[in-house]
Design a protein that fits this description.
Layout lengths: L7 H29 L6 H14 L9 H31 L9 H21 L2 H12 L4 H8 L3 H24 L6
Helix pairs in contact: 1-2, 1-3, 2-3, 4-5, 5-6, 5-7, 6-7
């Protein structure tokens, strides 16, 4: 069952159960995350991900133990590492393929790639990280919706939603910019 299909009372009960687990085992969970992530800057992000995991996949009360929580946290971290590795692999593969839009002249090719990098940076600044990732993978690297979904570890429907909302936001930003262009000196 997708989170969008969960009824409000069920969702409230899941959030309450996840919050209770975090209140009771929060320091233990944080220590497990801290000892298993590569980058200390990602500790908070993984703790939040684990909380959401608890909401989406509630743990039966009879199974809640430190051993079970340890395994669940470590599995979530491994899944995230696999997802990141898959994303890097697909981006590397896409980067190694010759770009059909690349001009034949080396100087023009360099300019094209620099403009593309600036465009990706702007997309990352303006959109939610997941929307930006979906838009860049889908339209920047030419992955299919299915490939993008697999890379990001979500459903194709979610990718379509990320891309649709992201492109709509970019269109709004671009139309505002064209209506009120900044004077550059």
């Amino acid at each position: 069952m997708r989170s969008s299909e969960i009824h409000q009372p069920v969702l409230c009960a899941r959030v309450k159960a996840a919050t209770e687990i975090l209140a009771r085992h929060g320091p233990f969970i944080r220590n497990v995350v801290a000892s298993n992530v590569r980058d200390p800057n990602e500790i908070d992000e993984f703790c939040q991900r684990f909380y959401l995991s608890l909401v989406n996949h509630p743990i039966p009360k009879d199974k809640i133990s430190r051993r079970y929580l340890y395994k669940a946290v470590v599995n979530d971290i491994r899944d995230a590492d696999r997802q990141t590795s898959r994303l890097r692999r697909l981006i590397t593969e896409a980067a190694e393929q010759p770009d059909r839009n690349d001009p034949p002249d080396p100087l023009e090719r360099l300019i094209h790639r620099e403009e593309t990098a600036r465009m990706f940076a702007m997309i990352r600044r303006q959109l939610h990280p997941r929307q930006a990732q979906a838009v860049i993978l889908r339209h920047g690297y030419g992955l299919t919706t299915g490939q993008t979904a697999k890379t990001m570890g979500v459903s194709p429907r979610t990718i379509s939603q990320f891309v649709s909302v992201g492109l709509k936001r970019l269109r709004e930003l671009l139309s505002r910019e064209s209506e009120h262009p900044e004077v550059k000196s």
